[in-house]
Amino acid sequence: xxxxxxxxxxxxxxxxxxxxxxxxxxxxxxxxxxxxxxxxxxxxxxxxxxxxxxxxxxxxxxxxxxxxxxxxxxxxxxxxxxxxxxxxxxxxxxxxxxxxxxxxxxxxxxxxxxxxxxxxxxxxxxxxxxxxxxxxxxxxxxxxxxxxxxxxxxxxxxxxxxxxxxxxxxxxxxxxxxxxxxxxxxxxxxxxxxxxxxxxxxxxxxxxxxxxxxxxxxxxxxxxxxxxxxxxxxxxxxxxxxxxxxxxxxxxxxxxxxxxxxxxxxxxxxxxxxxxxxxxxxxxxxxxxxxxxxxxxxxxxxxxxxxxxxxxxxxxxxxxxxxxxxxxxxxxxxxxxxxxxxxxxxxxxxxxxxxxxxxxxxxxxxxxxxxxxxxxxxxxxxxxxxxxxxxxxxxxxxxxxxxxxxxxxxxxxxxxxxxxxxxxxxxxxxxxxxxxxxxxxxxxxxxxxxxxxxxxxxxxxxxxxxxxxxxxxxxxxxxxxxxxxxxxxxxxxxxxxxxxxxxxxxxxxxxxxxxxxxxxxxxxxxxxxxxxxxxxxxxxxxxxxxxxxxxxxxxxxxxxxxxxxxxxxxxxxxxxxxxxxxxxxxxxxxxxxxxxxxxxxxxxxx
Amino acid sequence: xxxxxxxxxxxxxxxxxxxxxxxxxxxxxxxxxxxxxxxxxxxxxxxxxxxxxxxxxxxxxxxxxxxxxxxxxxxxxxxxxxxxxxxxxxxxxxxxxxxxxxxxxxxxxxxxxxxxxxxxxxxxxxxxxxxxxxxxxxxxxxxxxxxxxxxxxxxxxxxxxxxxxxxxxxxxxxxxxxxxxxxxxxxxxxxxxxxxxxxxxxxxxxxxxxxxxxxxxxxxxxxxxxxxxxxxxxxxxxxxxxxxxxxxxxxxxxxxxxxxxxxxxxxxxxxxxxxxxxxxxxxxxxxxxxxxxxxxxxxxxxxxxxxxxxxxxxxxxxxxxxxxxxxxxxxxxxxxxxxxxxx
Lengths: 606, 343
Description:
The structure holds two protein chains of two kinds. By secondary structure, chain A is an alpha+beta fold. Chain A is built from 17 helices and 18 strands.
């Protein structure tokens, strides 16, 4: 009823509440819960694992790249140191030869210088100048140019200033005719002899960039990484893109490099993150600077990143697909079951439930099916019982006015009247009248035990005239049982049976005893006769309706049993004991229920 | 049921999007300025001629950029600056070969205009280097300001002459509209030559005592320049100064002046070749106006790459000019400009 109230309630509020509830129910559906939780857990785990792996690998890759780069730069540094040492050795050789030579003009010295020149490809020129800047001697074959302004050049000034070997920044050597090579100059004040006198002069050796280039070209720091060399003042000695730097098209941030002799740091002055490693040559103060591009160092990182990304994408879509499928597999039988049960709930008890799927769901549907079957059975039974009850009542109704019985009785009355037995006629008519009165009882189904016993007494009186006192009877009942209620007309068919089948055929005088008593809260009425008795077969078929009382009231023993069973339950009813030639005893048991105190006293007989 | 499945899909969509975004942000960490070098581009560079230190240096710059940006550089040039038809044919070839970008140093301002329009029609961008071309379809110009260079040259020469005297100019590829129609070939002058001359003359016009007595135009051989210089000296015995406006002219004139017994003729040259440096050092030539050929070549290729990447490039890139004399030629920053770094 409450459900119906909600359904027919015109208020909008209720309806929206219902809608919201339905939506939240959908959100709590098994499929969604399984899918979401399964996906969430798997994705979370995959993501966490991936990130941990990523971090670990990335860090290792970065560390490896760093170490690798430092090793390469170390190597270049070492090679360059060897090279610079080589240059200074050549310088020392040249110096020794010039100093030891008896005269700077000697052909022997010139020859030696020639040998020295040809021994090294990267040696461009050897020459000696006076401290005033005048040319003394030089590599044979070279002609000095005019307007060289050599006094202002750094190799000249630094040689005058310091007694050590000085290394110049790269510069264009303009001393000799023919070309203008880019060189690094090594110079020092030395002593030489000319015309037998010891003089001071500046020895100059020019080296080109061939060897430095070769050394530095080997440096491979990833695809785009490179190494360059700075002198102590920050001039670029060597750079793989020296032309671009000189043309002002490229720029190298050298200030942070100059501050340290030995260092690794991240630089992003060019807009790109670059790892810079600096080493310094002890002798010249030159700095080797390795430049590696951070994004190349992290190439492995990016590859890993990409791999993990695709891996995650595949895993997640797989997980989603699997979880959707799985949850569908689990949820769909349940949902089908739910739908069927809903149909059943709506009243269609004949809906077959055939849900296959998980074991539990199958069992559930099986059990539910059985339950449904049982319900159907009970329903059928109720319908059957209702029908039987109605039929029994109809039979009782019929028996209330049994024309055959009435005809026989009236015949007996006529015969008595013919014989002038007025008293008997009166008794007969009185009994008949009371018999019918109780039979009808205003259509009530239940009467008191007293009324039932009265009813059977009147019946026995009437039958007594018909059977011409062929039997005797006895009705015994304690006073306390009389006010209990009983279904009406339960004794008559039994007594009728006893008379027609037990006593009528018997040669002896019949005796019928009727007792009513209370036993353990039950009413027990026993009808005993001393008639022919019944065979066990007859006894067995008695309650199945096999035996009909011919010419009786028409209400069978079976009917009595059925009615008691229907009203009080199947455990109540009739039981028979019988032995051939000895008689039959019928026991009626039903619950003792006190009769409702009826308004009318039932003493209307006049 | 529909409601539920829709919700499910929405949820999946959201989670996938989140993942994709995570992936995208962690993957895209490339710098903005970096030019991708995955695909090799075909860039054709067509200059005025295939000889001379100037064009070699342009080529060096272009090749440096080509190496850096993964470019297949095709370098083409006619034998001489005057072979305009040859240059037009080369541009047409490049269009046929479907170059990604064409870099052109036009020998003739008007002569190459039509073929540049044709390239633009074929959706091939064109970048001018050194000398402009008379087409509005050119994407960018990389080079020096010729007018300014001419003025610098004039200023120095007039200083050297103390503001009076006769001056001869040796220029190249004369613009002779209407005068050479008989030859059949289109013979419009090169833009850079015109600009330099104009700059020089405009500056010289401020000095009433300075008289430009002759302007000669050489084709592109040193011998021709030598001949023209001698002619000029013969025609004008009082000539006190010569200005040459390109490399070949400078080398020819320098040789003639070097051979003169009396070195009273002052000369301001153009561009820097090693021989010119020697002349500067031995005093034959008093000054030279230099450009930045290496930068021109490099930047032209670099911008060509950026163009083919669909990036915006500046319309004009002035790589600058500088006046070099004996006094400043060995300054470190000038050394770097004057002498190409050859290992």
